[in-house]
Design a protein that fits this description.
Radius of gyration: 17 Å
Mean pLDDT: 94
Low-confidence stretches: none
Bound molecules: adenosine monophosphate
Strand order of the largest sheet: 2-3-1-4-8
Shape: globular
Largest sheet: 5 strands, parallel
Length: about 220
């Protein structure tokens, strides 16, 4: 089973992808995480995308397609969860071709729907554990302990550089202009599902699992 999580920044794609990857033993491929990793390790790709990412614009299709292509070539014998990819029609077409060339198909595209005004609050209060990737929020999901991640105990928790209101407005515009059209693309292929991203995390997860059970 190979699936895509579609949704605006802050909709909860990463959180659900992490859960589903554990529950169904799948590989989570987040282009956002890959790009942040490239930036941290100062690779030429990382340096190229740094200011674009901070501004909230999308990096070029060419760059993200190359990252995904590389990951798909490592054969784990497990299904893939595409988290934050594809984000443009060009990327969706490239993904179709890549999967076809490996004789694998796309089972489902799950859209997590959340209104823009909720996203702004979610994103500006968000911080992430740099060690394990667990996501927290200043008001809706603060740390249970004083300063350490509840999951792995690390004290390295940070806000993302692009999680500010200015960059977020650009990210939302990019989503509306370039990523929203993917809904139509996958609707035509009859593999698009939508879930309500305002529900509690576990309720959304249960809804997603129900959809995915069909493809096991
Ligand atoms: P994310 O962590 O998914 O919110 O991504 C953070 C930033 O990385 C985005 O605002 C873009 O600048 C870049 N990015 C991540 N995935 C993609 C993609 N599939 N296409 C283009 N840019 C991307």
């Amino acid at each position: 089973m190979n699936i895509i999580f579609l949704g605006a920044p802050g909709a909860g794609k990463g959180t659900q992808a992490r859960k589903v990857s554990t529950e169904f033993s799948m590989i989570q491929l987040s282009t956002g995480d890959m790009l942040r990793e490239a930036r941290m390790s100062n690779t030429s790709t990382g340096n190229k995308v740094s200011s674009i990412m901070d501004s909230g614009e999308l990096v070029t299709d060419e760059i993200v397609i190359a990252l995904i292509e590389e990951k798909l070539s490592e054969n784990h014998g497990k299904g893939f969860i595409f988290d934050g990819f594809p984000r443009t029609i060009g990327q969706a077409i490239a993904l179709d071709r890549l999967l076809e060339s490996k004789y694998i198909g796309l089972s489902a595209v799950v859209e997590i729907k959340v209104e823009n005004k909720v996203l702004i609050d979610r994103i500006t209060g968000r911080y992430t554990c740099q060690a394990c990737g667990e996501v927290y929020h200043e008001s809706s999901r603060p740390l249970e302990t004083n300063r350490n991640c509840d999951v792995c105990g690390s004290n390295n928790l940070k806000k993302r550089a692009d999680d500010n209101e200015v960059s977020l407005r650009t990210r939302l515009k990019e989503y509306n202009d370039k990523t929203e059209p993917l809904k139509e693309y996958y609707l035509d292929k009859e593999i698009l599902y939508s879930v309500d991203g305002l529900k509690p995390i576990d309720a959304i997860n249960a809804e997603i699992n129900k959809i995915l059970m069909k493809y096991l």
